[in-house]
Structure formats: C-alpha cells, structure tokens
Amino acid sequence: MGHLCCRTKERPPPRARVVFVPPAQPISVSGWRRARALMDYFCAKVEGGFGGRYVLDRQDDPVSGRHGCAFFFWDLKEKKKVVLKMNVIYDYTDMSDPDDSLFPKNGMDILLWSGVRHPSIVRIDGIYSTTNLPGYAPTSGLKGFFLEFCYGGDMWSLPRMLTEPEVQRLNGPIYYEDSEAVFMPFIKNVLEGIKCLHDRGFAHTDIKSENICISRGEDGNAKATIIDVDRLLDFHGNPQYEVERSGDLYIVSGIIRRLIPEPSPEVLELDRYLSSFECGEKERHALNAEQALRLYAKWEAAHGPGMRVKLLPSPSPPQHLIDAYARKADGDKFDGRSHTDTEETRDTNGDDCRGRHCSVPVQANGKTVLRSLGGWVSAGSLWINAQVAKEYGLPGPWVRIQNWHDV
After folding, report:
1. CA 346 to chain centre
2. How far apart are CA 279 and CA 277, in angstroms?
3. CA–CA separation, 299 and 264 (whole Å)
4. Is the CATH code 3.90.1150.10 the one for domain 2-148?
5. DSSP summary character for residue 331
6. Is the pLDDT of residue 394 over 80?
7. Judging by beta carbons within 10 Å of its beta carbon (0-12, 13-18, 19+), is residue 46 exposed, middle or buried?
C-alpha cells in the first residue's frame, strides 16, 4: 500500500519500534539492477497515485547521494517541477526512532514535523511511503520526500551559472571585480538558514557547497538554499553537540575563500571568525550564527547590499500534460506518460490499466510477451500498455503474461 502524509499542527505520538525498512543495499551488478528496478517501481507508484498529479520527468536523470536517490517530477496541480528524494539507506541512529508510519525517521522528518519554514532552507511538502514491495519481505518498504526544486545548481557551479546567456541577458555582464558584491548575498542566505536551524535547536551537520543550491526567490532574485537535511541533529542546547553547531558555520569559511579570491577587510574579518573553530582545542571556541551575521552587517554597511542576480522562472510542465490533468476534472481518463486517449491504450477486455497497477515495460521477449519492472509479476496478472511500450521502443499491442517462465 502507499501512504502520503503532510505536516499537521500536532506531531503524531512516537511508536514503539521501526517496522518497515528499505531492502538491503545492493552489493553486486545484478543487485544494483534490482535496486534500480525497485526505484522505477516506486516512481510508478507515485505516478499512479494522487489522481495523476505527479508525472516523472524522464528528460532529467535521477541524482544519487549517500542516503538515496532524487527523482524529478512535474507537479501538474501546482504547474511546477518538484523533487522526490527516495531513501534507500538510513544511518544507524535513524533505525531506533520510527515515524508515524513505522518507517525509520531522519532529519527530513524532523524538519517537516517541526514546521520550520525559511527561504534559505529547502521546503519539504510531504512524504510518500509504500510497503509490500513485490519480491521482498513483508517488512520491506520505501519512503520518499517531496521537496522544492532548486534549478540553479550548487554553490560550486554558481560562477558558471553567472556566465550563462539567459542570466547575462537578465542582468547584463558580471565582471571578475564584482565577485564579492555578487557572492556575499548568497553567504548571507546561508548564514540566515543556519541561524534559523540553530535557534530551533537543530544542527545541519552536513553543510558543504554541494548541499547549498541556488533557487529563485519570490522577488525573482537568486538565493542560496540549504538542502540535504537527512542528518539534521536535534541538540536543543546539549553542550556535547556544540561541535556540530559550530561545524555548520566553520564550513562557510571555505566557501567564502573559494568564491572570493580577493576579499575586502570586512570579508577577511568574517572569514577569520568562521575559521577560528579550526584552532587547537585550547583556542577553539563555539561559533555563533548571530555573531557571524553581525560581522556580515559590517560588510554591508561598508559596501552596500551587494548585487542581486535575477533568474528566469523555474520551468513549467509540458502544456499537453497540464491540459490532460485539467481534463481529468471532467471525468476523462488520464495517463501521465501519454497525452492522447485512444482505443490503442485500452486492453482487450475493456478494463483500463492506466493506474497504479500498470508498470512500465523495460524489456521484451519476442514480439508479443513484455516484461514488467524487474520481473515482478505473477502468471496472468498484468496487462502492458501499447503506448508506453512504444515510448520505450517495445512492440505492442497489450498482451497478458501467461507463464512466468516464458518472460
């Protein structure tokens, strides 16, 4: 079954133990293929639910990380692109603390249920989880988080983004000597996001350039957004975790040095404060985001607010998908993978197989029998959509799989 939960005012009571966990991490080529098929299955479940609201953007390759994989979906209701991050690996500490659906809980759960909202912290809109994975134990399950889409790349790619023709047309040429004025407002975004977390008793614990992405703010200007909050730590003033809070700020020093090769005295003062955590144990002191922002204010007083870089709006879904989703309100059938409604997309006995039970075929055997995702079918149980087969270069029409051994 699939389960969607969104943030409510009251956090659900804790459960006794974790029940559902992802299947074991793949350790071989065949294991990786099986894992990828499992990810495809999860995406197909998302596409099949929510009344066709979410459609996988097959032009954007998924991005793999330490804890899982991020897929890009079109949200046809909001007419925007979103990220679905599916977790396939959890840290040991997560395994002792279940969420309300008895899945392991990590930092994204903490951020969602705490209600933290800040322009410089990635927005988490909901959770989708599913159990009873075909071919796996009953306790196997997968869980994904719907996140806002940051389409401007990460902090390392920021200088390259500024040279793109679209950005240059909106802002005019941006020169080397402007680097401090351009990059410092992004540093302010990061410091404000860290302060928001620290003020609420959380440490990010994984701040780095790759986990700071560029997105478009409501004013049309580019801003830095802290992402990848899987390892969020709830310290709430516990002195033993002070090192994690200071570590969040210390990393910002390295980002400043990378982006601003010829810093002004005010930037140097901010950098010295942030990098002071690197000193030996006797000289080391706890860093404070509020103090860092006071030093940033000194730079702002001397140099002004800096340059704000305008960005184009985030890409919108293809119009034919938006139109098809809108028609659904009038009772039309909808398949997010196809924008046409023809008799070819229906099975031979009149049943419609466009919902969550229709898997996308990935390989063929001859010209008649098609195989579902990862081979997870039982004899005589699945119909294959000819339109989907055509998109994958596979033959049609729909056929019923009669014998597992023939697939």
Report:
1. 34
2. 5
3. 9
4. no
5. T
6. no
7. buried
Q: What is the largest CA-CA distance in the chain?
A: 78
Residue with tokens 């389960």: 3
Torsional class of 69: left (φ above 0), alpha (ψ -120 to 50), beta (otherwise): beta
| Residue environment code for 5-33, b if the CB has 16+ CB neighbours within 10 A, otherwise e | beeeeeeeeeeeebebbbbeeeeeeeeee
Domain 155-303 has CATH 3.50.50.60: no
pLDDT band, residue 364 (cuts 50/70/90)? very low
Q: Does residue 88 carry a pLDDT above 80?
A: no
Nearest to 321, CA basis, from 79, 41, 150, 51: 79
Name the residue with tokens 């351009």. 182
What sign results for the dihedral spanned by CA atoms 10, 16, 19, 24? Answer: positive
Tell me how far apart the alpha carbons of residues 90 and 323 are, in angstroms, rounded to a whole number. 39
Q: For position 100, what pLDDT does the model report?
A: 80
Domain range annotation of the chain: 2-148, 155-303, 342-406
Q: Are 248 and 184 in contact (CB under 8 A)?
A: no
Model confidence pLDDT, tens digit, residues 374-393: 332 322 333 444 444 455 45
Close Cβ partners of 163 (under 8 Å, ≥ 6 residues apart):
174
Interacting residues of 98 by C-beta distance below 8 A, sequence separation 6+: 14, 15, 16, 17, 18, 19, 104, 105
